[in-house]
Amino acid sequence: MRIAHVLRRLSFDDWGGTEQVVWNLAKAQRAAGHEVRLFATTALCGKERETVDGLDILRFKPIYPWWPMPKSLVAELDRKGGNPFVPGLGKALREWRPDVIHCHAMARIAELCLRVGEWGMGNGERTRCVISLHGGGANVPGVEAKSLKAPTRRRIPWGKMLDYALGWTRRIPEDFGGIVCVGEDEYDRYKAIHPHVMFLPNGVDTSLFPTPSSKLQAPSSKLSLLCVARIDRQKNQMALVEALARHPGTTLRLVGPATQPDYLEELKAKAAELGVSDRVAFVGALRPGSPELIAEYGNADAFVLASRHEPFGIVALEAWAAGLPVVASDVGGLGRLCARHPDAAITFDSASAADLDRALDELSRRIASGAARGMSEAGRKAAAEYDWNRLSARLVDFYLEIK
Protein backbone atom coordinates (compact mmCIF):
# COMPACT_ATOMS: atom_id res chain seq x y z
CA MET A 1 0.00 0.00 0.00
CA ARG A 2 1.22 3.50 -0.86
CA ILE A 3 0.53 5.87 2.06
CA ALA A 4 0.94 9.67 2.08
CA HIS A 5 1.06 11.35 5.48
CA VAL A 6 0.34 15.08 5.26
CA LEU A 7 1.07 17.39 8.20
CA ARG A 8 1.50 21.10 8.76
CA ARG A 9 5.18 21.02 9.67
CA LEU A 10 7.97 18.51 10.21
CA SER A 11 11.18 19.89 11.68
CA PHE A 12 13.56 17.58 13.49
CA ASP A 13 14.97 20.54 15.42
CA ASP A 14 11.58 21.81 16.63
CA TRP A 15 9.36 18.87 17.42
CA GLY A 16 5.85 18.36 18.80
CA GLY A 17 3.55 15.50 19.69
CA THR A 18 1.85 15.37 16.29
CA GLU A 19 5.15 15.13 14.45
CA GLN A 20 6.30 12.37 16.77
CA VAL A 21 3.14 10.33 16.23
CA VAL A 22 3.28 10.69 12.43
CA TRP A 23 6.97 9.88 12.28
CA ASN A 24 6.68 6.72 14.35
CA LEU A 25 3.60 5.49 12.50
CA ALA A 26 5.32 6.11 9.17
CA LYS A 27 8.41 4.19 10.28
CA ALA A 28 6.31 1.27 11.50
CA GLN A 29 4.30 1.19 8.24
CA ARG A 30 7.48 1.22 6.19
CA ALA A 31 8.91 -1.61 8.31
CA ALA A 32 5.73 -3.59 7.57
CA GLY A 33 6.42 -3.31 3.82
CA HIS A 34 4.28 -0.33 2.83
CA GLU A 35 5.54 2.53 0.65
CA VAL A 36 5.33 5.69 2.75
CA ARG A 37 6.06 9.34 2.04
CA LEU A 38 5.60 12.45 4.21
CA PHE A 39 4.37 15.82 2.93
CA ALA A 40 4.61 19.03 4.97
CA THR A 41 5.30 22.75 4.76
CA THR A 42 8.69 24.40 5.12
CA ALA A 43 7.62 25.96 8.44
CA LEU A 44 10.63 25.83 10.80
CA CYS A 45 12.59 23.79 8.25
CA GLY A 46 14.00 25.14 5.00
CA LYS A 47 14.76 21.74 3.46
CA GLU A 48 12.29 21.15 0.67
CA ARG A 49 13.24 17.53 0.21
CA GLU A 50 15.19 15.04 2.29
CA THR A 51 15.32 11.35 3.11
CA VAL A 52 15.62 10.36 6.77
CA ASP A 53 15.72 6.74 7.97
CA GLY A 54 14.59 5.66 4.50
CA LEU A 55 11.52 7.92 4.49
CA ASP A 56 11.15 10.62 1.83
CA ILE A 57 9.96 14.01 3.09
CA LEU A 58 8.67 16.72 0.73
CA ARG A 59 8.02 20.24 2.00
CA PHE A 60 6.27 23.20 0.37
CA LYS A 61 6.28 26.87 1.26
CA PRO A 62 3.15 27.95 3.17
CA ILE A 63 1.32 31.18 2.33
CA TYR A 64 -0.54 32.74 5.24
CA PRO A 65 -3.56 34.59 3.82
CA TRP A 66 -3.56 37.72 5.96
CA TRP A 67 -2.54 41.29 5.32
CA PRO A 68 -0.27 42.81 6.40
CA MET A 69 2.10 39.89 6.97
CA PRO A 70 5.44 41.02 8.50
CA LYS A 71 8.25 38.50 8.86
CA SER A 72 7.79 38.40 12.63
CA LEU A 73 4.21 37.22 12.16
CA VAL A 74 5.27 34.59 9.62
CA ALA A 75 7.72 33.20 12.20
CA GLU A 76 4.99 33.14 14.84
CA LEU A 77 2.51 31.36 12.57
CA ASP A 78 5.16 28.86 11.46
CA ARG A 79 5.21 27.69 15.05
CA LYS A 80 1.50 27.52 15.64
CA GLY A 81 -1.56 28.18 13.52
CA GLY A 82 -1.91 30.39 10.49
CA ASN A 83 -4.18 28.16 8.36
CA PRO A 84 -1.97 28.49 5.25
CA PHE A 85 -2.45 27.78 1.58
CA VAL A 86 0.26 25.36 0.40
CA PRO A 87 0.88 25.70 -3.35
CA GLY A 88 2.49 22.66 -4.90
CA LEU A 89 1.27 20.18 -2.32
CA GLY A 90 -1.74 19.02 -4.30
CA LYS A 91 0.27 18.53 -7.49
CA ALA A 92 2.91 16.53 -5.63
CA LEU A 93 0.29 14.26 -4.09
CA ARG A 94 -1.33 13.56 -7.44
CA GLU A 95 2.01 12.84 -9.08
CA TRP A 96 2.93 10.32 -6.38
CA ARG A 97 -0.48 8.58 -6.66
CA PRO A 98 -0.97 7.25 -3.10
CA ASP A 99 -3.60 4.69 -2.18
CA VAL A 100 -4.26 6.55 1.06
CA ILE A 101 -3.93 10.22 1.95
CA HIS A 102 -3.69 10.47 5.73
CA CYS A 103 -4.03 14.11 6.77
CA HIS A 104 -2.77 15.30 10.16
CA ALA A 105 -3.84 18.93 9.82
CA MET A 106 -7.09 20.85 9.70
CA ALA A 107 -8.61 23.69 7.68
CA ARG A 108 -7.06 24.47 4.25
CA ILE A 109 -4.54 21.63 4.26
CA ALA A 110 -7.37 19.21 5.03
CA GLU A 111 -9.51 20.78 2.27
CA LEU A 112 -6.69 20.26 -0.20
CA CYS A 113 -6.30 16.61 0.78
CA LEU A 114 -10.04 16.06 0.24
CA ARG A 115 -9.95 17.76 -3.14
CA VAL A 116 -6.99 15.66 -4.31
CA GLY A 117 -8.69 12.50 -3.09
CA GLU A 118 -11.89 13.34 -4.98
CA TRP A 119 -9.98 14.08 -8.17
CA GLY A 120 -8.40 10.66 -7.92
CA MET A 121 -5.06 9.63 -9.34
CA GLY A 122 -6.02 9.32 -12.97
CA ASN A 123 -7.32 5.75 -12.73
CA GLY A 124 -11.00 6.59 -12.25
CA GLU A 125 -10.98 5.71 -8.54
CA ARG A 126 -11.15 8.04 -5.58
CA THR A 127 -8.29 7.88 -3.12
CA ARG A 128 -9.02 6.90 0.47
CA CYS A 129 -8.80 10.02 2.63
CA VAL A 130 -8.29 9.77 6.39
CA ILE A 131 -7.80 12.53 8.95
CA SER A 132 -6.29 12.32 12.42
CA LEU A 133 -7.42 14.64 15.20
CA HIS A 134 -4.35 15.28 17.34
CA GLY A 135 -5.16 18.49 19.13
CA GLY A 136 -7.92 17.69 21.58
CA GLY A 137 -10.27 20.10 19.82
CA ALA A 138 -13.25 18.64 21.66
CA ASN A 139 -12.08 20.10 24.95
CA VAL A 140 -10.00 23.20 24.12
CA PRO A 141 -11.12 25.96 26.51
CA GLY A 142 -12.80 28.91 24.82
CA VAL A 143 -10.27 31.39 26.15
CA GLU A 144 -7.37 29.39 24.71
CA ALA A 145 -9.11 28.84 21.38
CA LYS A 146 -9.53 32.62 21.18
CA SER A 147 -5.86 33.17 21.97
CA LEU A 148 -4.84 31.06 18.95
CA LYS A 149 -6.46 33.66 16.69
CA ALA A 150 -4.86 36.61 18.45
CA PRO A 151 -1.82 36.97 16.12
CA THR A 152 -4.05 37.63 13.08
CA ARG A 153 -6.58 39.85 14.81
CA ARG A 154 -7.16 43.17 13.02
CA ARG A 155 -5.57 41.87 9.83
CA ILE A 156 -7.36 41.50 6.52
CA PRO A 157 -8.23 37.79 5.88
CA TRP A 158 -7.94 37.83 2.11
CA GLY A 159 -7.83 34.05 2.08
CA LYS A 160 -11.57 33.81 2.74
CA MET A 161 -12.33 35.22 -0.69
CA LEU A 162 -10.09 32.62 -2.28
CA ASP A 163 -11.76 29.87 -0.24
CA TYR A 164 -15.14 30.75 -1.70
CA ALA A 165 -13.70 31.05 -5.20
CA LEU A 166 -12.22 27.57 -4.90
CA GLY A 167 -15.40 26.16 -3.41
CA TRP A 168 -13.61 25.11 -0.24
CA THR A 169 -16.62 24.86 2.01
CA ARG A 170 -16.31 21.23 3.06
CA ARG A 171 -16.93 20.01 6.59
CA ILE A 172 -13.73 19.08 8.39
CA PRO A 173 -13.36 16.35 9.56
CA GLU A 174 -16.81 14.94 8.74
CA ASP A 175 -16.28 14.73 4.97
CA PHE A 176 -13.22 12.50 5.26
CA GLY A 177 -13.69 8.80 4.60
CA GLY A 178 -12.21 7.95 7.99
CA ILE A 179 -11.53 9.82 11.23
CA VAL A 180 -8.74 8.75 13.58
CA CYS A 181 -9.05 10.14 17.10
CA VAL A 182 -6.09 10.42 19.44
CA GLY A 183 -8.41 11.70 22.17
CA GLU A 184 -11.40 9.77 23.47
CA ASP A 185 -13.47 12.96 23.69
CA GLU A 186 -13.32 13.31 19.91
CA TYR A 187 -13.99 9.62 19.47
CA ASP A 188 -17.14 9.89 21.57
CA ARG A 189 -18.24 12.91 19.53
CA TYR A 190 -17.76 11.50 16.03
CA LYS A 191 -18.53 7.80 16.38
CA ALA A 192 -22.25 8.60 16.56
CA ILE A 193 -22.30 10.63 13.35
CA HIS A 194 -19.67 9.03 11.09
CA PRO A 195 -19.44 5.43 9.82
CA HIS A 196 -15.65 5.10 10.02
CA VAL A 197 -14.13 6.40 13.26
CA MET A 198 -11.41 4.80 15.34
CA PHE A 199 -9.67 5.61 18.60
CA LEU A 200 -5.92 5.17 18.16
CA PRO A 201 -3.84 6.11 21.20
CA ASN A 202 -0.31 7.35 20.94
CA GLY A 203 2.55 4.89 21.24
CA VAL A 204 6.10 4.57 22.47
CA ASP A 205 9.29 2.79 21.47
CA THR A 206 10.24 1.14 24.76
CA SER A 207 13.49 -0.16 23.28
CA LEU A 208 14.92 3.37 23.49
CA PHE A 209 14.78 3.38 27.28
CA PRO A 210 17.23 1.32 29.33
CA THR A 211 16.11 -0.47 32.47
CA PRO A 212 16.14 2.20 35.17
CA SER A 213 18.46 2.02 38.15
CA SER A 214 17.12 1.93 41.70
CA LYS A 215 17.36 5.71 41.81
CA LEU A 216 14.09 6.49 43.59
CA GLN A 217 15.62 7.21 46.97
CA ALA A 218 15.86 11.01 46.87
CA PRO A 219 15.00 12.89 50.08
CA SER A 220 11.41 14.09 49.92
CA SER A 221 12.50 17.75 50.03
CA LYS A 222 14.87 17.45 47.05
CA LEU A 223 12.91 16.19 44.08
CA SER A 224 14.23 16.47 40.53
CA LEU A 225 11.16 16.94 38.31
CA LEU A 226 11.05 16.73 34.52
CA CYS A 227 8.43 18.11 32.16
CA VAL A 228 8.70 17.37 28.42
CA ALA A 229 6.24 19.52 26.50
CA ARG A 230 6.27 22.47 24.16
CA ILE A 231 6.38 25.82 25.98
CA ASP A 232 2.75 26.71 25.50
CA ARG A 233 -0.10 27.92 27.69
CA GLN A 234 -1.94 24.69 27.04
CA LYS A 235 0.87 22.82 28.84
CA ASN A 236 0.54 25.08 31.89
CA GLN A 237 4.21 25.13 32.92
CA MET A 238 3.40 28.24 34.95
CA ALA A 239 1.74 26.05 37.59
CA LEU A 240 4.98 24.09 37.93
CA VAL A 241 7.19 27.17 38.21
CA GLU A 242 4.91 28.58 40.90
CA ALA A 243 4.94 25.26 42.75
CA LEU A 244 8.73 25.47 43.14
CA ALA A 245 8.27 28.42 45.50
CA ARG A 246 6.12 26.22 47.74
CA HIS A 247 8.49 23.22 47.60
CA PRO A 248 11.99 24.33 48.65
CA GLY A 249 14.76 22.17 47.25
CA THR A 250 12.68 20.79 44.39
CA THR A 251 14.13 21.39 40.92
CA LEU A 252 12.40 21.44 37.53
CA ARG A 253 13.71 20.89 34.01
CA LEU A 254 11.46 22.06 31.15
CA VAL A 255 12.25 20.33 27.84
CA GLY A 256 10.50 21.43 24.66
CA PRO A 257 10.33 24.07 21.93
CA ALA A 258 8.67 27.41 22.63
CA THR A 259 5.59 27.53 20.40
CA GLN A 260 4.56 30.67 22.30
CA PRO A 261 7.76 32.68 22.88
CA ASP A 262 5.91 35.31 24.90
CA TYR A 263 4.84 32.58 27.33
CA LEU A 264 8.48 31.50 27.70
CA GLU A 265 9.35 35.05 28.74
CA GLU A 266 6.46 35.06 31.22
CA LEU A 267 7.76 31.84 32.77
CA LYS A 268 11.27 33.23 33.14
CA ALA A 269 9.94 36.46 34.64
CA LYS A 270 7.79 34.54 37.14
CA ALA A 271 10.74 32.34 38.14
CA ALA A 272 12.82 35.47 38.81
CA GLU A 273 9.98 37.10 40.73
CA LEU A 274 9.58 34.04 42.97
CA GLY A 275 13.32 33.60 43.45
CA VAL A 276 13.42 30.11 41.92
CA SER A 277 15.38 30.83 38.72
CA ASP A 278 18.27 28.74 40.01
CA ARG A 279 15.94 25.74 40.38
CA VAL A 280 14.27 25.77 36.96
CA ALA A 281 16.12 24.95 33.74
CA PHE A 282 14.77 25.79 30.28
CA VAL A 283 16.43 23.09 28.20
CA GLY A 284 14.79 23.82 24.85
CA ALA A 285 13.84 21.34 22.14
CA LEU A 286 15.44 17.91 22.06
CA ARG A 287 14.93 15.49 19.21
CA PRO A 288 12.66 12.55 20.13
CA GLY A 289 14.63 9.41 20.85
CA SER A 290 17.91 11.33 21.06
CA PRO A 291 20.51 10.36 23.67
CA GLU A 292 20.06 13.82 25.19
CA LEU A 293 16.32 13.31 25.70
CA ILE A 294 16.76 9.79 27.04
CA ALA A 295 19.33 11.18 29.49
CA GLU A 296 16.82 13.78 30.71
CA TYR A 297 14.37 11.03 31.59
CA GLY A 298 17.14 8.98 33.19
CA ASN A 299 18.32 11.82 35.43
CA ALA A 300 14.90 12.76 36.85
CA ASP A 301 13.14 11.46 39.95
CA ALA A 302 9.68 11.91 38.46
CA PHE A 303 7.79 13.28 35.49
CA VAL A 304 5.14 15.99 35.81
CA LEU A 305 2.66 17.35 33.26
CA ALA A 306 0.19 20.07 34.25
CA SER A 307 -1.70 20.50 30.94
CA ARG A 308 -5.01 22.37 30.92
CA HIS A 309 -6.27 19.93 28.28
CA GLU A 310 -4.60 16.95 26.66
CA PRO A 311 -6.02 14.45 24.14
CA PHE A 312 -3.57 11.77 25.24
CA GLY A 313 -0.10 12.70 26.52
CA ILE A 314 2.54 10.69 24.65
CA VAL A 315 5.23 11.94 27.03
CA ALA A 316 3.54 10.08 29.89
CA LEU A 317 4.25 6.85 27.99
CA GLU A 318 7.87 7.86 27.55
CA ALA A 319 8.18 8.62 31.25
CA TRP A 320 6.72 5.22 32.12
CA ALA A 321 9.05 3.51 29.65
CA ALA A 322 11.93 5.24 31.46
CA GLY A 323 10.64 3.95 34.79
CA LEU A 324 9.56 7.34 36.15
CA PRO A 325 6.54 7.91 38.38
CA VAL A 326 4.11 10.28 36.65
CA VAL A 327 2.29 13.22 38.24
CA ALA A 328 -0.29 14.50 35.74
CA SER A 329 -3.33 16.73 35.50
CA ASP A 330 -6.61 14.85 35.37
CA VAL A 331 -7.79 16.18 32.01
CA GLY A 332 -9.03 14.59 28.78
CA GLY A 333 -7.24 11.56 27.42
CA LEU A 334 -4.29 12.14 29.78
CA GLY A 335 -6.55 11.68 32.79
CA ARG A 336 -8.11 8.57 31.26
CA LEU A 337 -4.69 7.11 30.49
CA CYS A 338 -3.59 7.57 34.09
CA ALA A 339 -6.88 6.17 35.38
CA ARG A 340 -6.27 2.98 33.40
CA HIS A 341 -2.89 2.62 35.12
CA PRO A 342 -3.50 4.04 38.62
CA ASP A 343 -0.47 2.28 40.15
CA ALA A 344 1.83 4.27 37.85
CA ALA A 345 0.49 7.82 38.24
CA ILE A 346 -0.78 10.44 40.67
CA THR A 347 -3.30 12.87 39.18
CA PHE A 348 -4.38 16.34 40.24
CA ASP A 349 -6.74 19.15 39.27
CA SER A 350 -4.84 21.43 36.89
CA ALA A 351 -6.83 24.44 38.11
CA SER A 352 -5.88 23.92 41.77
CA ALA A 353 -2.45 24.83 43.13
CA ALA A 354 -3.38 23.10 46.39
CA ASP A 355 -4.15 19.86 44.57
CA LEU A 356 -0.84 20.02 42.71
CA ASP A 357 0.89 20.46 46.07
CA ARG A 358 -0.99 17.42 47.42
CA ALA A 359 0.17 15.32 44.46
CA LEU A 360 3.82 16.42 44.84
CA ASP A 361 3.71 15.77 48.58
CA GLU A 362 2.28 12.31 47.94
CA LEU A 363 5.05 11.64 45.43
CA SER A 364 7.69 12.71 47.97
CA ARG A 365 6.25 10.37 50.58
CA ARG A 366 6.25 7.44 48.15
CA ILE A 367 9.84 8.09 47.11
CA ALA A 368 10.99 8.43 50.72
CA SER A 369 9.25 5.19 51.72
CA GLY A 370 10.35 3.20 48.67
CA ALA A 371 6.77 2.82 47.42
CA ALA A 372 7.62 4.73 44.25
CA ARG A 373 9.47 1.68 42.96
CA GLY A 374 6.12 0.01 42.51
CA MET A 375 5.06 3.01 40.41
CA SER A 376 8.17 2.55 38.27
CA GLU A 377 7.45 -1.11 37.65
CA ALA A 378 3.78 -0.46 36.90
CA GLY A 379 4.72 2.30 34.48
CA ARG A 380 7.07 0.12 32.46
CA LYS A 381 4.36 -2.54 32.18
CA ALA A 382 1.86 0.10 31.05
CA ALA A 383 4.21 1.50 28.38
CA ALA A 384 4.70 -1.96 26.89
CA GLU A 385 0.99 -2.04 25.95
CA TYR A 386 1.43 0.87 23.48
CA ASP A 387 3.84 -0.55 20.91
CA TRP A 388 4.05 1.46 17.67
CA ASN A 389 4.08 -1.63 15.43
CA ARG A 390 0.85 -2.90 16.98
CA LEU A 391 -0.83 0.49 16.59
CA SER A 392 0.35 0.84 12.98
CA ALA A 393 -1.13 -2.53 12.02
CA ARG A 394 -4.49 -1.46 13.47
CA LEU A 395 -4.34 1.73 11.44
CA VAL A 396 -3.67 -0.07 8.15
CA ASP A 397 -6.65 -2.34 8.84
CA PHE A 398 -8.74 0.79 9.32
CA TYR A 399 -7.60 2.17 5.95
CA LEU A 400 -8.85 -1.00 4.26
CA GLU A 401 -12.32 -0.62 5.76
CA ILE A 402 -12.86 2.65 3.88
CA LYS A 403 -14.47 2.33 0.46
Structure, explained:
The chain folds into two domains: 2-203 and 387-401, Glycogen Phosphorylase B (Rossmann fold), CATH 3.40.50; 206-383, 3-Layer(aba) Sandwich (Rossmann fold). The protein contains 15 helices and 14 strands. It has helices at residues 17-31, 71-79, 89-96, 107-119, 142-148, 159-166, 184-190, 237-246, 261-274, 291-299, 314-321, 332-340, 353-369, 372-383, 388-401, and strands at 2-9, 35-41, 49-52, 55-60, 100-103, 128-133, 178-181, 197-199, 224-228, 251-255, 280-284, 302-305, 326-329, 345-348. The strands form two sheets. It has an eight-stranded mixed beta sheet, with helices on both faces. Helix 3 (89-96) packs parallel to helix 4 and helix 11 (314-321) crosses helix 14 (372-383).
Strand order of the largest sheet: 3-4-2-1-5-6-7-8
In terms of DSSP E residues, the strand content is 15-25%
If you average the pLDDT, what whole number results? 91
Distance between the termini: 15 Å
Q: Report the major sheet.
A: 8 strands, mixed
CATH class of the largest domain: Alpha Beta
In total, the number of strands is 14
Whole-number count of domains: 2
Specify the overall morphology.
Answer: globular
CATH architecture descriptor text of the largest domain? 3-Layer(aba) Sandwich
Give the number of helices.
Answer: 15
